[in-house]
Amino acid sequence: xxxxxxxxxxxxxxxxxxxxxxxxxxxxxxxxxxxxxxxxxxxxxxxxxxxxxxxxxxxxxxxxxxxxxxxxxxxxxxxxxxxxxxxxxxxxxxxxxxxxxxxxxxxxxxxxxxxxxxxxxxxx
Length: 124
What we know:
This protein is an all-beta fold. 0% of the residues lie in helices and 50% in strands.
């Protein structure tokens, strides 16, 4: 049974930084893809980045150059380092996980099987 638990959200001023964590348990064996998504009130869920078990990353244009995804395999944890935060980055942030599938769209939420509960980020 896969469980994902996000942490690290909070309130920050524009231009500041936050690091979110996503701790995964229960996923074994297959190569994986871990994605970060966000959803603001009244908006669709947006895929902002992903990392796979080989360390390859993909970012949405909206966060490229400001956000960095990394992972600590020993801790089964993926991180989302967010710098130069803007008010429009305010949203609920989710991590999600799926088996690594060649050719699958990396930032499409429907491709992901397991989801965390989300953590709120507010930038003012």
